[in-house]
Amino acid sequence: MEGGFDTPGAVNAMSADEEDPDPREGPLHPRHREALFGHGAAERRLIDAYRSGRFHHAWLLTGPKGIGKATLAYRLAKYILRYPEQAGAPANSLYVAADDHVAAQVAARAHPDLLVVQRAADGSKLKTIINVETSRRAGEFFSKTAGAEGWRVCIVDAAEDMNIAAANALLKTLEEPPARSVFILVCSQPGRLLRTIRSRCIELPLSRLSSEDARSALDALPEGAGRDPLKAIGFAQGSPGLALSFAETGAGAVFARFAEAAQRGRIDQATRIAIANGLYGKGTDDRFSRFCDLLDNWLTHAAAEAARSGAHAATGLALAEAHDAISRSIRETNALNLDRRLTMLQAFEQIDKARRA
Predict the structure, then answer these.
(1) What ranges do the domains of the chain cover?
(2) pLDDT in 10s for each residue of the chain, 357 residues
């Protein structure tokens, strides 16, 4: 999210009374955010499409984690629900004030015409996937009539978390959407989506924020959220959401040690073991997840930088392949509760090997 930031990726339809305590909850959740930083062109495109009267029923917001995709999704949802008559909707911004009745309902998870499909909370943890039972609720939701002949909006966050059965269930509604219905899919890894889902959406790619916009987003945080993440912007590479979590979860110190070793050219054995141990054990779930996000960002950036240099094109390809292999390994580790230390030690070996290519 942005100034709010994307949450770590349950159905929320949206009644707080129906929900168990959710580790994503808090004042930084994207539905509470009012400001938008760095995505003015995307906002302009959505406004123009909506006001034209020919608004597509499914939008796919793509881009790296933590840059504001979820915040833009909630911002669009509030705008549509607040201004159901398209021609009369504001032309300059998707902004809906926090004290507006629609924004207040969304913030309280109490708007009857907004459905959020996301990973369910299982105690203090999140399930690793969006399952088919959760996804099927979209069909039930869109079978009902919106209040006051308005719109019904479904946010899927994050769409790549759907397993195959869930994706196919969602596809049925995407293929035959009822009138005045909108899907907003938030996705950091569009390559993991079914091609049939992507083909039914208009994809709206969002870019990483500039350092200036990232700082502005962090400065807009509620009082008490802290400003330590400012120093993490460089590591997070245009993702204020990652910069914030970098500081909050303790992943910062761990990742800083990795980055320092990588800058020296090789991740020595002592550093590998220290990092792996720092990501293992009770209470380290969020730290591990955030470290993996930062490592994913680092690998993507390193592969791109090497590929742009003709002399290091082979290294760029090797790093891209390592990125894919490490991503798969991390997903398997999370899904099967495998040993994180072994996963990280294998990842560091793959990275060093790729950098020698």
Answers:
(1) 11-205, 249-355
(2) 343 455 433 455 554 334 445 767 777 889 998 999 999 999 999 999 999 999 999 999 999 988 999 999 999 999 999 999 999 999 999 999 999 999 999 999 999 999 999 999 877 778 889 999 999 999 999 998 887 679 999 999 999 999 999 999 999 999 999 999 999 999 999 999 999 999 999 999 999 998 889 888 888 877 655 445 555 566 667 788 877 777 778 888 898 899 899 999 889 999 999 999 999 998 899 899 989 988 998 899 899 989 887 767 899 999 999 999 999 999 999 989 999 999 999 999 999 999 998
Write the DSSP string, 295-312.
Answer: HHHHHHHHHHHHHHSGGG
CATH of domain 11-205: 3.40.50.300
Residue type, 197: I
If residue 167 lies in a helix (H) or strand (E), which one and from where to where? helix 164-175
pTM (two decimals): 0.75
**Residue 328 and residue 1: Cα distance in Å, rounded?**
24
Distance of alpha carbon 316 from alpha carbon 303, whole angstroms: 4
- What is Dmax (Cα atoms) for the chain? 64
Indicate if the alpha-carbon torsion angle 110, 114, 115, 118 is positive or negative.
Answer: negative
Q: Which helix (H) or strand (E) holds 348?
A: helix 340-355
Backbone angles phi, psi at 342, to 5 degrees: -65, -40
Tokens at 174, concatenated: 């995407």
